Amino acid sequence: MAVNILISGLISGSMYALLAIGFSLIFGVARIVNIAHTAFYMLAAYCIFFITEKMGLNPVIAMVAAVIVVTLLGLIVYLLFIKPIREHEAAVLIGTIALAIAMQEVMLLAFGGSFRSVPSLIGGYFVLLGVKVFYQQLLTFIVVLLTLAAIWILLMKTKLGLAIRSTADDREVANLMGMNESRVTMLAMGISVGLAALTGAVVVPLAIVSPFMWTNPLIVMMAVVVLGGLGSIKGSFVGAYIMGFAEALVVFLIPKGAFLKGPVALSIMILVLLIRPEGLFGVAFEEER
Amino acid sequence: MKMKNMVRSIFLTVFLALAMCFQAWGADVIKIGVIGPMKFMQGKGHWNGALMAADQINGKGGIQVGNKKMKIELVKADSNEFLNITDATNAMQRIITRDKVDFIVGGFRSEAVLAMQDIAMDYKKIFIDCGAADPELCKKVAEDYDRYKYFFRGSPFNSHYLGKTCFIQAATVGAILKKALGIPKVKVAIVTEKAMWAEPITKAAQGVFPKLGMEVAGVWRPSQTATDVTAILSAIQSSHAQMIFTAFSASVGITFARQAGELKIPAVQVGINVEAQKDGFWQATQGKGNYVMQLDTYCQGVEYNDLTAPFVDGYVKRFGEKPTYTAATYDAILYSLAPTIEQAGTLDADKLVSILEKRVYKVSPGTDKYIVDAKGRQTHDLTWGPGYQTGIGVQWQDGKNMGVWPYHWVAAKGAPEVTYKGIVPYKIPPWVLEAYKK
């Protein structure tokens, strides 16, 4: 059972980490609470479904195409809908909710409400310490780890990363230091949506594709972000794995209560808000930013 | 300019007069509201079934009402009931008050149908339910007949009988397993989604299986939208269950079947899996849903009577997929409403109710006879059992939906065997046989 919990926790945690880091990144840099973040994840899943099942192309091509198409779409959405209102946080919040629902409705009209799936890149399973593990799960985990490493290098070892971190720390000072805040925000949005699309791409062979598949990850992702601290990338990373393992523990230790994993995630979020409102790695007071 | 205005006014007057004339001619049609979640497979079933019936009736000139023939005009209403029950009640209100429909067929979720039922009853409109299975819907007819008598169940039979049929099917498969695997007692894992409708089935299953000579290995309750059930599957494998009794209505049915098939869990799946009723199940599980068996209403090649094949084959030919039970709007219009209207010679709802509730008539999934309860009250619920409606057991066999139950089924001691035309033997998955090979 311990191996089961370990594998399940690592896979879920990695998926939440990818989503939450993207969400935190754009919040940290531009204070944009992008509720449509997981809707982009859903769009990527549909892109892959369409390319593999309707066009009959290779799943790897589909995944690459999905990430590119959805990232470009994210940038267009940013320029047309978010940028004009980005100074009004409440408007952005409400606007992105509307945007997510609009994306859901478009997918519903285009593909109907039926559940779909895409083939695994590698079928079958192997047995690890008596537990059956899908090859696809292993592949997903490796891709997620590589992506997280690439993000870390981008943020910590490149000039762009430095600009992103500086803007996240203090937008005005970064601007005064000669950084093009508007351009950095745009790039951060691209990376953020790209991460959501990549999550969709690597997780979709393990998931069910439907127009509503964005809502459950959104709730857990929000819980992860609150747990880790709003805008904190390190916090999102740690929070994601805590949430992933919490879910795995519920499913494995309480079989009759497997459906409780969602409520458990939300309970953790509420507890954190009550005990430490700034989250594990968040800033205590907004004024300190 | 004045001339131009005058010409415009004349055109407008003529147009309005014509429109009014058309409305008057339109009075010679029978308007039937088809209500359902139209963006989903269930709503499509409602609409497609109704469309087939309307085309068939209109192709023959319409329904004879007294001394005139009236054609059918369908009015489509998206209830959106999966997402919002208020949308469903609004849609019902709209088709009755704005579109002025004479009859209504459709509905899917019991919660939504219960709400829509009241609106239809307020306006004394005959409403034939083609989707919801809650017995409460018909209990209302018995308890407050004058108000609810306009409600009839069309499909499926009520959830009490749905459960009963599933247990009979599980017992049949259990007997096959015992013989084929050489085991003294079959162990059953009960896996039901966490949803209101699955509660009574879960509770009943824990009591029924021991009475059927089987052992309950455990009960698991995944969420309706679970995307990973490997934990449950590992536990089931450890419990050494040979059968998994399922009750799934949502996406977890796909996840479960796909992952169980991929991991080759040595246990057969029997019960309710709504997603497995759809043609898209094979794609959705990437073919891993092979050998899953589920309760169903239609299966191409299986015939309850002489009406089944023309409907199922016609449906497949026209829409490219097999019908699900919501397509029983076809029977509701063609066999319930049309002959009743012709017999009554009127569209008067009260007169139609008194005729329809007494009729015993063939429909494509069997024979409809409305139940009169122990107190002698009309319920407008459907009779279950051989000779009436029983449903079928359908198994996925190498990408095809095959009817596997009833196969030499004896419903009661001394009763004749029942095997519908087109039913084939049940197949045990090879990896289950392999696991128990001595």
- Rg of Cα set of chain B: 24 Å
CA-to-CA gap between the ends of chain A?
44 Å
Q: Helix/strand/pairing class of chain A, anyone? A: mainly alpha
CATH topology of the largest domain in chain B: Rossmann fold
Helix content of chain A: over 70%
Q: Give the count of structural domains of chain A.
A: 1
Going across the biggest sheet of chain B, name each strand in turn.
2-3-1-4-5-6
Determine the number of helices of chain B (DSSP H or I, runs of at least 4 residues). 15
Order of helices and strands of chain A: HHHHEEHHHHHHH
Number of strands of chain B: 18
**Per CATH, which architecture of chain A?**
Orthogonal Bundle
Share of β-strand residues of chain B: 15-25%
Number of helices of chain A: 11
Low-confidence stretches of chain A: 285-289
Mind sketching the topology for me?
The complex is a heterodimer of chains A (289) and B (438).
Chain A: H1 2-30, H2 37-54, H3 59-82, H4 89-111, E1 125-128, E2 131-134, H5 135-157, H6 159-169, H7 171-176, H8 181-203, H9 215-228, H10 233-253, H11 261-275
Helix pairs in contact in A: 1-5, 1-6, 1-8, 1-9, 1-10, 2-3, 2-4, 2-8, 3-8, 5-6, 6-8, 9-10, 9-11, 10-11
Chain B: H1 2-26, E1 29-36, H2 41-59, E2 63-65, E3 68-78, H3 85-97, E4 103-106, H4 110-122, E5 126-130, H5 136-143, H6 145-148, E6 151-155, H7 159-181, E7 187-192, H8 198-211, E8 215-220, H9 230-239, E9 243-248, H10 252-262, E10 268-273, H11 281-284, E11 293-296, H12 308-319, H13 329-344, H14 349-356, E12 360-363, E13 366-372, E14 378-382, E15 392-397, E16 400-405, E17 409-410, E18 417-418, H15 430-435
Parallel strand pairs in B: 1-3, 1-4, 4-5, 5-6, 7-8, 7-9, 9-10
Antiparallel strand pairs in B: 2-3, 11-15, 12-13, 13-14, 15-16, 17-18
Helix pairs in contact in B: 2-13, 3-4, 13-14
